[in-house]
């Protein structure tokens, strides 16, 4: 009998619609690869439904009818360790990073601190707590002033550029922080990297494999950045593979992608995003469940590296089964 995969679709975050698109593609690609695939709809209210019926779950009982789960969920309550914790309690194999790596990579400050610890190059940044900003905004402005202008202000745990503001003038900082604090009580302010945006996909468990890096070209041009509109409106961006960087820089990107994957304790897959400024490679972020349609950057980079979409999915399911078996072989 074919292995049955439950694909989680939707979720509670503002990336719900992105996830629905990812999940539909994943389910169809899995069928092409010879799997049985069923979609489980996770509502914006957090309720799980299969074929319209509310799903009741029992810890330790797996996900009845399915051998493995593909949580094609992005952002909070999906990519941040929460759903991964639920899947651990159910005791079902699932694709992608576990609880700790999911949570750590979702958190932009924690992730940067982990990377700094490992000596990986990145932009200069400051963390700003909402309570500190409310108490003394001038002190926060002075502290952040050291980063120069422009800066990028972000809530620490979101994706798809939601809640991010590029600040080009001093008096824009306060409103930008207010926007970030609508989403989270902690914000990160980053010095701007002026260069190319390069992305690299990684798959594997113990022996991760990096794809050919690709470059994001924005329709918006010079002062534009990779905001929600550029990401999801037709023609907003183009992916160029291979990236227009020298081979040794491309090799450095792949090395750092694998290093970031290992250092953050990832499993299964990740897309690691960089800024390349002249020939300097700075790590921006690591997504443990990147956009996953057949034409998304993650799959396109592997397709360009000789791993077509259905085969990519097949490998990811295999990594999930292997990791579950390996983890259950430990004494705990
Ligand atoms: N420090 C920075 N320097 C230059 N551009 C940035 C910086 N931080 C973010 N950006 C721009 O904002 C986009 C989204 O930021 P990112 O941290 O990747 O958030 P998300 O997790 O929402 O994708 C980036 O792809 C880039 O275009
Ligand atoms: Mg990003």
Round the Cα radius of gyration to an integer and report it: 20 Å
User: Which structural class best describes the helix and strand composition?
Assistant: alpha+beta
**Strand composition percent:** 15-25%
* Alpha carbon gap, first and last residue: 32 Å
Ranges with pLDDT <50 over ≥5 residues? none
User: How many helical elements?
Assistant: 11
Please outline the helices and strands.
Elements: E1 4-10, H1 16-32, E2 36-42, E3 48-50, E4 53-54, E5 68-71, H2 82-90, H3 99-106, H4 108-117, E6 125-129, H5 130-135, H6 137-145, E7 151-155, E8 165-167, H7 173-181, E9 186-191, E10 196-204, E11 209-210, E12 214-218, H8 228-232, E13 237-240, H9 247-263, E14 268-277, E15 280-287, H10 297-304, H11 309-328
Parallel strand pairs: 1-2, 1-5
Antiparallel strand pairs: 2-3, 3-4, 6-9, 7-8, 7-9, 10-11, 10-12, 10-14, 12-13, 14-15
Helix pairs in contact: 1-11
This protein binds adenosine-5'-diphosphate and magnesium ion.
List the defining traits of the structure above.
15 strands; 5-stranded mixed beta sheet; 332 residues; 6-stranded antiparallel beta sheet; binds magnesium ion; single chain; alpha+beta; binds adenosine-5'-diphosphate
Give the structure's gist in a few sentences.
The protein has 332 residues and is of the alpha+beta class. The chain has helices at residues 16-32, 82-90, 99-106, 108-117, 130-135, 137-145, 173-181, 228-232, 247-263, 297-304, 309-328, and strands at residues 4-10, 36-42, 48-50, 53-54, 68-71, 125-129, 151-155, 165-167, 186-191, 196-204, 209-210, 214-218, 237-240, 268-277, 280-287. The model has no long low-confidence stretch (mean pLDDT 96).
